[in-house]
Design the sequence.
């Protein structure tokens, strides 16, 4: 054979060997054995290359002769469905497989679907029997059979879903749950919707059981719902509720595998302080799930509280391995280390959960205790670090005070001050400790400001220090000195005064005098006076020295008041000026008398006549011939009703001033004092002047009436009336004159006008009664006589006249005879003899 042909045979053999290897890897062992045999046969045909490829050929021979799988193939075994089977047996199995397939086809043909629940359930049963037949056969892992099984499962799922929907429509929740459960078991990867549907169904069943108080069944359903792992926030609450209503023995009989149940029971026992029972339940929970976080945490807490800190620490560390960020475990470890007094280690754990309120409080206490410990040890920087951390968690006045103390020692005055004030705000009772330090800080800041030549800033700090010190005297002195340097004498004096130190006496006097002199120059006399008086109160010997200045101030103040029209104040200060310095009286007294006169006029205009009289009389001592003073005095006496004095001053004034007002008043005065001759004289003057004519006519009427010259009197009274005289007395006089003249109707008219205008007295009613009597108007006469008796109950003649009228003209039926007798008895008793005669007649007539 040529070498070229050998090469082709070799390559063919090599290719067969490769294909055999591929078949071997694919577990097609019979094909692999056949390909290996064919390859070896080709190798054996070689001559030259057989020698050259000896190793490759030997390897193939060895593989064929030693490989256990190829040996099985050589012995007639076939690799079928993952097993080595004898060829004859395989033939038998394939026959059985064929029969199984035929059986399944019978199941499929038997199952029918007519949409009713019973049909659906029957079909499901048939398909499940078919699956059971597959599972019981040796071909359950056969790919073809598996495919059939998958089809059956799909059918069952479809029918189960239909059944669930049908039962949902009928409201049979248990059946709905049954078919959803079936679906769930058949699904390799159940959909969230399916789980949610089943979960909701379980919860409805649960609610039904709860409503009829079948709590044990409700618990079973709730646990099924819980096993679905559907997110539901209040599921544990429901479990808690149910577990509190089911007997513990019954719960334990149920062989529950949910560790959460035992955790909840443990939690309830813990709340009842039944620690052994709580531990028992927790151990059951942890048997079911050694990594049940909640149970581990509660167990760790119980161990901690019962003093088993090392065991509790192991539990907490186990939780952290499972959940490195578990805050409760971190908090528990922090608590354990605090209990072990390993504070810094505790802090390292508590800081990881510092957002928790419980951790915050524990951290606060840990920081505070460490801070106080280092502060006592004198390690201020470390103390400050921990105290500041504590303060960041919670504002505590004691901590703020101690931080401030450290900062104070370190001379960080601004921060120290801020914290001291904050501590005081939180707890004012700390002021006894804090106030001296705050005062000292302000004093240090004030001193620094002075060194920096900032006196105004120093003032601010000194004043702030005052609020916190128990010894303000030295601070007052410093403030006073600063104000003095700044030229603020007033403020300096205020603070020098507060020092109450004898050493500052001369300084205070000097400043008061300086301040007084400044105010005097400015014309601020009251302020100057006040400051001079302050200086004298400190140094009384200054009183003599300052006498002249005081008189000048009083004079200036008086002048000021005089210009403003404040005469009383001016008078007071002029008098003070003379009192302190009599040498100036010659200059001041004219002003004083002038003020008396001005005050007299002022009070006269205000209607204060007695005060006016007082000042005008004083003014008259200096100016006895002053006509204006004479005028006002006359007017005042007139208004006060002292007509004698009024006449004296007004006549004196009238000697040079014959004006109508004075003449009028003199006429009034003489009229009121019944000197009608003089009154008539002044009335004539008024008539000559053409002034106050109605009044002048009235006076002349009175004058002639007094002379019983009724014609002249009537003439002037009528002139007074027509010229507008308003005194109702005019009507009285006119009425009276007409009565005398026998003109009774006119008399009544004028007398009535007098009464209507307010002129009401005994005589006017008496005259009108007599006029009515003359006119035989007895009833009106009786009425007026009654008015006479009202004004004068002792008028005997009025009783007589009224009694006589009752007797002669009274109404017997109305009992006026008795009135007549009563009036006549009174008149007779008062001495009217004629009344006795009429009385006897009246008695006889009345039958008494």
Sequence:
């Amino acid at each position: 054979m040529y070498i070229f042909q050998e090469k082709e045979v070799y390559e063919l053999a090599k290719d067969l060997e490769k294909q055999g290897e591929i078949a071997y890897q694919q577990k097609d062992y019979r094909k692999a054995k056949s390909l290996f045999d064919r390859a070896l046969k080709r190798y054996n045909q070689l001559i030259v290359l057989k020698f050259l490829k000896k190793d490759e050929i030997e390897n193939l021979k060895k593989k064929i002769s030693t490989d256990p799988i190829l040996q099985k193939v050589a012995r007639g075994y076939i690799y079928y469905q993952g097993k080595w089977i004898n060829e004859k047996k395989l033939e038998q199995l394939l026959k059985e497989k064929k029969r199984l397939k035929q059986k399944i086809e019978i199941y499929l043909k038997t199952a029918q679907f007519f949409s009713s629940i019973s049909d659906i359930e029957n079909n499901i049963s048939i398909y499940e029997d078919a699956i059971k037949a597959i599972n019981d056969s040796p071909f359950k892992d056969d790919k073809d059979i598996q495919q059939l099984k998958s089809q059956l499962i799909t059918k069952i799922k479809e029918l189960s879903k239909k059944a669930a929907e049908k039962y949902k429509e009928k409201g049979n929740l248990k059946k709905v749950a049954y078919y959803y459960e079936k679906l769930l078991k058949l699904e390799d990867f159940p959909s969230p919707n399916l789980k949610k549907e089943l979960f909701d169904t379980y919860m409805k069943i649960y609610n039904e059981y709860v409503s009829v108080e079948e709590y044990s069944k409700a618990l079973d359903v709730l646990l099924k719902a819980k096993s679905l792992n559907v997110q539901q926030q209040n599921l544990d609450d429901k479990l808690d509720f149910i577990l509190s209503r089911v007997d513990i023995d019954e719960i334990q009989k149920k062989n529950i595998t949910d560790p959460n149940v035992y955790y909840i029971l443990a939690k309830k026992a813990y709340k009842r302080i039944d620690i052994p029972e709580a531990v028992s339940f927790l151990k059951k929970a942890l048997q079911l799930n050694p990594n049940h976080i909640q149970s581990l945490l509660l167990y760790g807490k119980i161990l901690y509280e019962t003093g088993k800190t090392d065991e509790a620490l192991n539990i907490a560390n186990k939780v952290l391995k499972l959940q490195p960020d578990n805050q409760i475990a971190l908090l528990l470890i922090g608590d354990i280390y605090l209990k072990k007094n390993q504070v810094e280690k505790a802090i390292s754990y508590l800081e990881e959960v510092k957002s928790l309120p419980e951790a915050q409080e524990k951290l606060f206490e840990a920081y505070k205790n460490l801070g106080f410990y280092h502060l006592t040890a004198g390690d201020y920087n470390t103390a400050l670090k921990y105290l500041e951390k504590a303060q960041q968690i919670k504002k505590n006045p004691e901590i703020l005070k101690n931080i401030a103390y450290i900062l104070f020692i370190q001379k960080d005055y601004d921060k120290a001050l801020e914290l001291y004030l904050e501590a005081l705000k939180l707890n004012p009772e700390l002021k006894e400790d804090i106030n001296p330090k705050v005062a000292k800080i302000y004093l240090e800041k004030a001193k620094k400001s002075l060194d920096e030549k900032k006196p105004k800033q120093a003032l601010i700090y000194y004043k702030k220090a005052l609020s916190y010190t128990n010894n303000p005297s030295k601070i007052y002195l410093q403030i006073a000195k600063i104000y003095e340097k700044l030229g603020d004498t007033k403020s300096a004096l205020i603070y020098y005064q507060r020092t109450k130190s004898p050493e500052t006496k001369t300084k205070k006097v000097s400043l008061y005098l300086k301040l007084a002199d400044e105010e005097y120059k400015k014309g601020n006399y009251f302020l100057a006076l006040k400051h001079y008086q302050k200086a004298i109160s400190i140094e009384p010997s200054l009183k003599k020295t300052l006498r002249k200045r005081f008189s000048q101030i009083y004079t200036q103040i008086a002048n000021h008041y005089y210009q403003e029209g404040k005469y009383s104040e001016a008078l007071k200060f002029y008098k003070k000026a003379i009192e302190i310095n009599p040498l100036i009286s010659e200059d001041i007294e004219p002003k004083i008398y002038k003020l008396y006169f001005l005050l007299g006029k002022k009070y006269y205009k205000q209607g204060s006549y007695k005060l006016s009289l007082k000042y005008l009389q004083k003014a008259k001592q200096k100016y006895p011939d002053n006509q204006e003073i004479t005028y006002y005095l006359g007017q005042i006496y007139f208004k006060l009703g002292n007509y004698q004095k009024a006449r004296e001053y007004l006549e004196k004034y009238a000697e040079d001033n014959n004006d109508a007002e004075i003449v009028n008043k003199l006429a009034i005065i003489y009229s009121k004092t019944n000197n009608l001759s003089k009154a008539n004289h002044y009335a004539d003057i008024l008539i000559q002047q053409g002034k106050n004519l109605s009044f002048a006519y009235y006076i002349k009427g009175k004058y002639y009436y007094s002379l019983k010259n009724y014609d002249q009197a009537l003439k002037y009274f009528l002139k007074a009336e027509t010229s507008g005289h308003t005194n109702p007395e005019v009507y009285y006089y006119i009425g009276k004159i007409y009565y005398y003249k026998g003109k009774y109707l006119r008399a009544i008219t004028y007398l009535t006008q007098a009464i209507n205008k307010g002129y009401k007295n005994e005589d006017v009613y008496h005259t009108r009664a007599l006029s009515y009597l003359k006119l035989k108007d007895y009833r009106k006469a009786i009425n007026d006589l009654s008015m006479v008796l009202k004004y004068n109950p002792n008028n005997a003649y009025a009783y007589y006249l009224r009694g006589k009228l009752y007797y002669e003209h009274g109404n017997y039926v109305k009992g006026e005879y008795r009135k007549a007798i009563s009036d006549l008895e009174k008149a007779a008793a008062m001495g009217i003899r004629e009344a006795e005669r009429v009385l006897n007649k009246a008695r006889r007539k009345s039958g008494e």
